[in-house]
Structure formats: C-alpha cells, structure tokens
Amino acid sequence: MFSKLNPLKKTDKGSSTHTGFDPYEVLEVRHLTADSFSLRIERRDLVFKAGQCFNVGPMGAIVNREYSIYSGESEPYLEFLIKLVKDGAVSSKLHSLKKGDLVEVAGPYGLFTLNQKNISQNKYVFIATGTGIAPFHSYVKSNPGLNYQIIHGVREARDQHDKATYEPARYTACVSREKGEWFNGRVTEYLKDRALDKDAYYYICGNRKMISEVFDLLTSKQISGDRIITEVFF
User: Fold this and answer.
1) With 0-12 CB in 10 A as exposed, 13-18 as middle and 19+ as buried, what is 117?
2) Pair 109, 54: CB distance under 8 Å
3) Residue 126: beta bridge partners?
4) Letter string b/e over residues 50-86, b meaning 16 or more CB atoms within 10 A of that residue's CB
C-alpha cells in the first residue's frame, strides 16, 4: 500500500501503537456487491488517525492483509472496505464471517493522514479507484466541514459504496463500463481536460498504474510535487 512515487510526501507504515495481533469481535459484515463488502468490528479503546491502516486476518491464519480504516475517528467501531478476491487467502475468509466471530488485528500504521494544523484552511482533492476510497471516507467522516472534492473511479455504478456519505457537489464518479448521469470513463480521462487548483493538496489511492498515471498528469499541469500524496492500495 505504500508508494515511493513522491519522495517528498510519501506514506510510511513503519510505526504502530500495537505490537502483535489481538482478537477483535465481528459486529457486522455488510455485503455491498458480489465482490465487495465492509467488515465492522469492535473498537474498544483503540486510537487511530483517519487514513491509517491495520493488519487484519482470520483467527489463527498464517497470512493477513493491510486494510485502510473506513470508519471515522469518533465512531464506536472499526470498519474496513474490502474487495473480495476470488480464492483470496484472507478476503474470502473475512467475507464469510458472522457476528460474534473473531478476527486478528494489529495496528494502526502509516502516515497517509491529513495535517491537522492546517486542515480547516486547506483544499483537498481525493482521487481513488475502487475500494481505494476507504481512507477518504474516513477523512470525511472524521472532519466535518472539510473542504474536499472526491474523484472516484469505478467499473460499474453499483461500486459507488456509501455515496450518500459525501455531499453531492463534492463527489464525482468516473464509471468506465456504464453510461449514465456520471462521467463515463477513467479518472485520468476526467482529469485530462480540466483545470486543476494549484493550491489544493492531491491525495491519490488505488492501483499502482492509476497512481502513476495521475501523478504524471498532475505534475504535467504544474501541480507541485509536495502537494501530491500517494498510497498504493492494491
């Protein structure tokens, strides 16, 4: 999930407030589409910053996966937005969990977070593909009054998970496989012919190819590299 595209503003998963894994009880599994779901677990007294991630896995599993936090900092639970990978060692097992089951959790980690000192003064543009919108959902839930725009690339309209969370004027969907009221195409196609605010901070999260293309596009439009923060989500 960590990108080195921008050495000035790269994310860093080196720190943790919890060492090792602890068991957490599952509160709910929301089945959103055939290949995506959210996992909601108890929070206890765990403290995190919006944009950080956790290692999550089934109890006793050999492997686990990193997932960015989806819930807000003040919500009484931890929630993760997860893409179901066919035959996936972790996602398929998490997908089948029921209320009361246990998962192993370690974290939080990472610095893909907003600078709290100037948060009320800054303008943010959040660019995501698929479930890469998770940290941006956490930003919005954690910071009422945040000045943001979200550009969300998805394959189908049904993949606009929890769209009602965002103010309609602040959310733009780029749907590549369906025509409709949204922009029909990829996020790079949407950005290509639009004027961009050079004073905004650009956070990019999603697949590596998209991040690389968007990074190059932003810099070609004279967006300063120290205003671009990236994280490879999958």
Assistant:
1) exposed
2) yes
3) 150, 203
4) bbbbbbbbbeebeebbbbbbbbbbeeeebbbbbbbee
Separation in Å, CA 138 to CA 43, 95, 108, 174, 203 = 15, 21, 14, 20, 13
Unique residue bearing structure tokens 């698929």: 130
Angstrom distance (rounded) from CA 183 to CA 103: 38
Beta bridge partners of 229: 203
Distances, alpha carbon 55 to alpha carbons 31, 101, 110, 151, 173, in Å: 21, 17, 11, 26, 29
Pairwise CA distance, residues 156 & 143, whole Å: 28
Residue found by looking up tokens 């969370």 in the block: 165
Most confident of 14-18, 58-62, 217-221: 217-221
The model's pLDDT over 67-78, given as tens digits with 9 standing for 90+, comes to 999 999 999 999
Q: pLDDT digit string (tens) for 208-232?
A: 999 999 999 999 999 999 999 999 8
- Residue 152, H or E segment: strand 148-154
* Virtual torsion, Cα 104, 109, 110, 115, nearest 10 deg: 120
Q: How far apart are CA 97 and CA 19, in angstroms?
A: 24
Bridge partners of residue 40, in order along the sequence: 28, 79
Tell me the DSSP string of 57-98: EETT-S--EEEEB-S-TTSSEEEEEEEPPTT-TTHHHHHT--
Positive or negative, the CA dihedral 35, 100, 89, 135 is: positive
Domains of the chain with CATH codes: 22-109 (2.40.30.10), 124-232 (3.40.50.80)
